[in-house]
Write a structure and sequence with these properties.
The complex is a heterodimer of chains A (251) and B (473). Chain A is of the alpha/beta class and 251 residues long. Chain A has 2 domains: 116 residues; 115 residues, Rossmann fold, CATH 3.40.50. Chain A has 13 helices and 8 strands. In chain A, β7, α12 and β8 form a beta-alpha-beta unit. The two termini of chain A are 32 Å apart. Chain B is 51% helix and 10% strand. Among the domains of chain B are: 238 residues, NagB/RpiA/CoA transferase-like (Rossmann fold), CATH 3.40.50.10420; 48 residues, no CATH class. In chain B, α16 runs parallel beside α19. Chain B is built from 23 helices and 10 strands. In chain B, strands 1-10-7-4-2-3 form a 6-stranded parallel beta sheet, with helices on both faces. In chain B, strands 8-5-6-9 form a 4-stranded mixed beta sheet, with helices on both faces. In chain B, a hairpin with a 4-residue loop joins β5 and β6. Classes of the chains: A alpha/beta (251), B alpha/beta (473). The structure holds iron/sulfur cluster (2 copies).
Chain lengths: 251, 473
């Protein structure tokens, strides 16, 4: 695919309110690559939280309002494996038999997770300007299994000369976030994030990088909570922010 | 007690059982590694999964005629076929057969369907002595516990606990913590029983309609003994186990053993086709097959949930589930635990009884990734969540539809819809949330038990994008 001139950016509800810098960095990376980035101002959420909780009618109303934000036939780039996965893998089921099923499918067909877009469409080349740093990657389950972009994040990081990537034990295991799972099954979720943070700490990584802010909220929040007993954990950071920081001279 | 509360109590207990959790973690890691080693070539694995899925899907589509054919073939081969609609009926049928044959002692090969019907309990109440002959099943029978895994029923126990259990029941045999010696001890105890049992009971992995063959996969030889040593053999299985042709077996068997225990093939593979013939020296004089429905027919009616029935009970989904590894099988409180349990049990027993199991899932997809017959487990869990809170949107006949709908929760989602389905409301909500971030509670109940609290950023991405000169259309 030839790189498009323009793309839509779907920042996701989580990033919009909690991690806006990650979203902004994603947009800046795209802009730096010569692409005009459009941020539709009516965007809210893909419907995933309600869909995963069984509240499909509510999910549908919300997803429906998002559809209206991307009318032109240009790619929709999403800085989240799980939201991109929702659109690409689950909208078909959510919109089944609805009048706008076709519109939903059409948008899904031009939706990309950010690292997927950077690698597969832009073939982005990076030049590392940062100091040596040791990092670990946590690929979200949806990035890994629904979007198939576990290799994409690592290939981008692999271009950064001063970045050393270390591997944690049981890398492919879920961090225990799972949206409302973290509330409904709080103790299981707590046990899972405990295991995840333990294996990440054991690597000695200074930072943990991910394509998904849901996982980072979970893992980073747990590092914070454990700080008193176990000391400060690695800094958690979205891949877009990390790439922008490493390749941007002013940082 | 309400199912939700009871589930949380079991989870709490499981999470506090450090010993069992250590066992689960190490056994599951081992099984995952062994499975992975059996499939070095991913393309081959995916092709094999496609094939296995197609065989099982095909069998389910043709199930009624295949079952008829199976009955004809088995009957022609001299195997008596019985149909049971419910667990109770299956137990009654088995008891009647035993009673008619004056059978008082019983050895059993491993059978999850008999767990489903609680057969042991039923028979013991009627003064029939039942002995589980699978080592794992034998251990939990001694301990009076249900299985914690469908393939490895006693993995919640460590060697020391098994040693103590054996010593308690068979003090004359001496105490040992050596696994080989323990296996040998069990073997001694069991061999005696095999020689004298009146009847053997087993499960079935695949029932071949074309030839009327009952296939039994096992590792200890106890399945073979249970089905050949006593004079009477009764097999029990679910109706969905039927497959069309004998040539369906090699690919299914291949992917089953590799997925289950990471073995290229099990030590024993039994094909049972008839009782002992006049010129034969061993084998049971009579063989019966009990085919149990127990809600399977109604699961089969739903186009999507039908996929549940493709399951060949390999346990791979369980081995790979990050929730199961934390809590183990007993926490689920049902016969089938883990991903397949979260899908099957709420359908089998009704959402009003076990629908809450669907909450024990992060939707990580690890189970579906390994399922040899490609059952989309998280997708089905999601569907059942929807059925349990929102009866409105499907016409499926699932017991307990809408039974987990709670006012507080549905109201919360209604508010969420109000905010997120309307860009105007959302903007307003976001403005307040970011401006009043100082008021965000620092304790958010369940979330902050294990993590720091969440705080909105001072400016939203929408605002930052505007500041940085990005267009909005
Ligand atoms: S998707 Fe759910 S059931 Fe399947 S492995 Fe992940 S947590 Fe377990
Ligand atoms: S659902 Fe799939 S992985 Fe799980 S036991 Fe059944 S066949 Fe095996």
């Amino acid at each position: 695919m030839k790189p498009p001139e323009r793309v839509y950016f779907f920042g996701t509800c989580l990033i919009d309110m909690l991690y806006p810098k990650a979203g902004l960095a994603g947009m800046q990376l795209l802009r730096q690559a010569g692409i005009k980035v459009i941020y539709p101002k009516d965007q809210t959420c893909c419907g995933q939280p309600a869909f995963n909780s069984g509240y499909r009618d509510e999910a549908l109303s919300v997803a429906r309002s998002l559809i209206k934000c991307f009318p032109q036939n240009i790619p929709v780039v999403v800085p989240s494996g799980s939201c991109a996965g929702m659109i690409k893998q689950h909208w078909a089921e959510l919109f089944a038999d609805q009048v706008d099923a076709e519109a939903a499918a059409e948008i899904a067909s031009r939706t990309y997770e950010l690292t997927q877009f950077l690698v597969d469409v832009l073939d982005l080349k990076l030049k590392d300007l940062g100091k040596p740093v040791k990092i670990a990657v946590h690929t979200s389950c949806s990035a890994r299994r629904e979007m198939g972009v576990a290799e994409h994040i690592e290939s981008l990081l692999g271009q950064l000369d001063a970045v050393e990537l270390v591997q944690q034990e049981r890398k492919a295991e879920c961090c225990g976030f799972g949206g409302t799972f973290a509330i409904k099954q709080a103790d299981i979720s707590g046990a899972m994030v405990q295991d995840k943070t333990t294996s990440l700490r054991a690597t000695g990584a200074e930072r943990v990088i991910s394509q998904d802010c849901g996982c980072l909220m979970n893992i980073g929040g747990a590092f914070d909570k454990q700080a008193q007993d176990k000391g400060k954990g690695p800094v958690t950071q979205h891949i877009a922010e990390f790439l922008w920081e490493r390749t941007h001279a002013s940082n | 007690m309400h199912q939700t509360e009871a589930f949380h109590q079991r989870i709490d207990k499981a999470l506090h059982n450090e010993q069992a959790r250590t066992s689960f973690r190490s056994t599951m890691s081992g099984l995952m590694q062994k499975r992975a080693a059996q499939f070095p070539d991913n393309d081959e694995l995916q092709a094999l999964r496609d094939q296995a899925r197609a065989i099982r899907a095909h069998a389910l589509t043709r199930q009624p005629e295949l079952l008829e054919q199976l009955e004809q073939k088995l009957t022609a081969n001299g195997i008596r076929v019985h149909w049971a609609e419910t667990a109770q009926q299956a137990n009654e049928i088995i008891y009647q057969i035993l009673h008619a044959a004056d059978a008082k002692t019983l050895v059993k090969g491993k059978s999850m369907v008999s767990e489903e019907t609680e057969l042991n309990h039923y028979l013991e109440q009627r003064n029939i002595e039942v002995l589980e002959s699978d080592l794992g099943e034998f251990i939990i029978q001694l301990a009076h516990e249900p299985p914690s895994h469908i393939v490895a029923p006693a993995i919640h126990k460590n060697v020391k606990q098994v040693a103590e259990l054996f010593h308690q029941f068979f003090p004359e045999l001496g105490y040992t913590e050596n696994i080989d010696e323990l296996t040998l001890l069990a073997r001694q105890i069991l061999r005696d029983k095999f020689a004298n049992a009146d009847a053997g009971i087993s499960g079935v992995n695949f029932a071949v309609a074309e030839t009327g063959t009952l296939c039994l996969v096992e590792n200890e030889g106890n399945g073979r003994l249970s089905t050949t040593a006593p004079r009477l053999h009764i097999a029990i299985t679910g109706i969905e186990k039927v497959v069309a042709k004998l040539s369906d077996i090699p690919p299914l068997l291949n992917i089953l053993t590799k997925s289950a225990t990471g073995q290229p093939i099990t030590t024993y593979f039994n094909m049972i086709s008839r009782p002992r013939q006049p010129d034969e020296k061993d084998g049971p004089q009579a063989v019966h097959l009990v085919l149990l429905d127990n809600q399977r027919s109604s699961i089969r009616m739903d186009e999507e949930l039908l996929d549940t029935l493709r399951c060949i009970r390999c346990g791979a989904c369980i081995n790979h589930c990050p929730v199961y590894v934390q809590v183990g099988g007993h926490a689920y409180g049902t016969v089938y635990p883990g991903p397949i349990g979260c899908v099957l049990e709420p359908q089998r027993l009704g959402l009003e009884k076990t629908g809450i199991l669907t909450s024990a899932c992060t939707m990580c997809g690890a189970c579906a990734e390994v399922c040899p017959v490609r059952i989309p487990l998280p997708k089905l869990i999601n569907r059942l969540r929807a059925e349990s809170v929102n009866a409105a949107r499907s016409e499926a006949h699932i017991n307990g539809k809408g039974s987990l709908r709670k006012l507080t929760e549905s109201q919360a989602w209604a508010i969420w819809r109000l905010l997120y389905a309307s860009p105007r409301n959302y903007r307003l909500f976001r403005w307040f949330a970011t401006r009043l971030r100082g008021l965000t509670p620092t304790r958010l109940g369940a979330w902050t038990r294990y993590r720091s609290s969440i705080k909105p950023a001072p400016r939203s991405l929408q605002e930052l994008a505007q500041q940085e000169g990005f267009d909005h259309e």
